[in-house]
UniProtKB/TrEMBL annotation:
Aminopeptidase N is involved in the degradation of intracellular peptides generated by protein breakdown during normal growth as well as in response to nutrient starvation. This is Aminopeptidase N. InterPro entries: Aminopeptidase_N-like_N, Aminopeptidase_N-like_N_sf, PepN_Ig-like_sf, Peptidase_M1, Peptidase_M1_dom, Peptidase_M1_pepN, Peptidase_M1_pepN_C, Peptidase_M1_pepN_C_sf. Residues 446-555 form the Peptidase M1 alanyl aminopeptidase Ig-like fold domain. Signal peptide: none annotated.
Amino acid sequence: MSSSPAQAIYLRNYQAPEFALDAIDLTFELDPQATKVSAEIQVRALGENRCLVLDGQDLTLLSLAIDGRPLDADEYQYQNDQLTLLNVPSAFCLSTQVEINPQANSALEGLYLSNALYCTQCEAEGFRRISFFLDRPDVLSRFTTKLIADPQHAPILLANGNPIAQGTLADGRHWVQWQDPFPKPCYLFALVAGDLVCIQDTFVTQSGRSVDLQIWVEAENQHKCAHAMRSLKAAMRWDEEVYGREYDLDIYMIVAVNDFNMGAMENKGLNIFNSACALADPQTTTDLGFQRVESVIAHEYFHNWSGNRVTCRDWFQLSLKEGFTVYRDQAFSADMNFAGVQRIEEVTMLRSAQFAEDASPTAHPVRPDHYMEINNFYTLTVYEKGAEIVRMLANLLGPQAFRQACDLYFTRFDGQAVTVEDFVACMEEISQRDLSQFMRWYHQAGTPHVQVQGQYCPQTASYRLDFQQATPDTPGQTNKQPLLIPITMGLLDAQGRPLPLKLKLASGEIQALGLQGVLELTQAQQSFEFIGLEELTEAPIPSLLRGFSAPVKLSFPYTPTQLATLMAQDTDAFNRWDAGQRLALDTLMPLIDAQVTQIDLAQDAPMLLEAYRALLTEAEHTQDQAMLASMLRLPSFAYLAEQYACIPVEAIEQVRQAMRFALARTFYPQWKALYQAQISQQAYAPEATQIAQRSLKNLCLDYLLALAAVPEYQQEVYQIALTQWRTSDNMTDARAALTLLAHAPDASWGRDPLAEFAQRWQQDALTMDQWFSIQATRPYADTLQQVQNLLQHPNFSLKNPNKVRALIGAFAQQNPLAFHQISGAGYAWLADQVIELNGFNPQIAARLVIPLTRWQRYQDTRQTLMRAQLERIQAQANLSADVYEIVTKALQV
Ligand code: B3K
Ligand code: ZN
């Protein structure tokens, strides 16, 4: 908890540092409760100012000297997290010694203990909890780090860079000294010490250098590292091939720790990972888990260039490294998996979760202009929408020019701390385009709405598309300006055949675009006219926003028949899927509005019925199970909720379940046959084809279990799920079956399997997280009571962020019926947890409170109840800046 009151920091007040800290030589004498940190810092004044103000938080100052001369008490001040040194020389060596208590550090920021392991997390502002320093990303220093520890407790001592010396002291403690040759901001500093084992490999870079790859874990996790290592090597090769980027040190280390606030951290040469994002084995990890490991390993590796070699000038520029790096890891994952489905998954998340953030009290631009607590800005907007911005740039420039612009960026700014403008300037320079309007994507919060109408004119054989764009107001931002929105598109005839695009320009000139083009929307209203459509007898079908070419909500008055044609025929996989989503929304939303409890497909959903029939008829012959599974999946609760200003919680859930039930019943033989056709005798491997097959199989199982309460199907579907649970050799299938059993209306179905799971995995913390999540997401109101009981379970701990996410996070974010129960009990319980967490881990507390901040989206009773909980939290003494900022924003609107 910060001792100073929370105050906003503004981008417009940025000032360059007045001192350079060229080098820092650190010595850690590690001790659980009293670690001594000595630092020798080479300081150099850059201007006239001789008053040096360093950051430092919760540090016990032991000694302070300038060029070896200890300072008198009147020569410095340490208060409000700042150490002020008056009248310093223009260049000098500052020696500091402080004491810190890693064991008492439950915020998991700075140096802390995870079980018996010392580890650090310094981004964004954790280094100030380790040593006095200029804790800002635009101060780059060369780091040397000496670690001293008891060899019994900490036989392994790791830090950034290369090991340069080691030895043993007279008192029996051992030490290792590390040196990082690359100047870096202190947020990339890391150390790890403890009893670890290592999986080793080597990678030969494109220029022929050999790099040692090491993954460090606790001994019991040694068998779970192969996938991370494979992923790392694939990422290293990919970055060489696609971006020409080579790794720069002789050693690359990854450490997995159990207690970690986020997924992982890209510390130079020493990545620290949440074990959930590094460890994987078929017995305990689902396909999704394997894919997450692959993408997070790649993400952190890619940061070595997009983030570390070229870093951020200030924290407002966070998306400069995060948006770009997410874009890079998405492109990597698309190359490793099925690209179409990969894109569908990215957009699904963006449209349900990031769009919701954009429409909430915590909405903010991809580059925010102020913050109280920077940790609150590691958001979907900064990461995922930031990645969409880079994707638009890549598409606007085309692959060659984009690569050249990236080369220019990496070369020009190597070793520097830069801004979003610097990045976009490289794009401008290479493409010779003016991207000043495009920059609005970084400044304006909110999701743009694009409304499109089509006008077909048989007389002139032309088709005109009329576009309107508008971005809604967001807190603190009104009157948004038009954006440059790239619309990748094509036209289809009524039979679904692609039509050549001949665009009539304002000059009267005709531009032939081939079968696909990109329309650049720049104005609030704009029209595009296509000519030469003499062959047509009726209006063409526009396929708009292919590949989701811009992060917008696009509407077009499609008829159900047009959507069915797009679903079946469009050349763009994403739009085939999205046409299905549109058809499903158009079908489900009127049923939700009517609050129906039963659906007669022939009457209530004739086109959707036909679409499913067509998909299931072709299913047997499909080569693309991944795509088929995506096409057959109904829109999620979250995506449906996003369509409503006021979310009808029960009606959405009721209609989704009724539709699932109706589809299950109508196509029961097809689901069963398709399910059986996907059962494979192959040994489990987390590779794309198998993953696709399992996702289709488990989707079929999901439909089958929709009939769990129907007497004539009950026994059969129960046996199918139970058999899968009992016989599967991998967690993907086991978890899918267990979830469906545990979520069945008859609670007895899940009882034994859940007990068996706990019995088998109680020693395995990560695996037990899944057990907590499955129970937290049972879609019944009485789940709250069960979740309350689970808080007391011996495997649960509020101190472990993974557990908090698995139980409390899953309940609040993935169990709408139970969380939003009209009594308000779900809200009150969440608030209790937030208040407790605020006391020891503000970052996690601030994440957890988010569902309550979305109160505006629910009906009055819920609004009142949610606000009451926010007010209760706000009234707490000792509220952290993290929670204070979020709660205040939520109550201000
Ligand atoms: N850069 C880190 C996130 C740090 C979060 C600090 N609260 C992980 C990543 O995005 O790669
Ligand atoms: Zn990142």
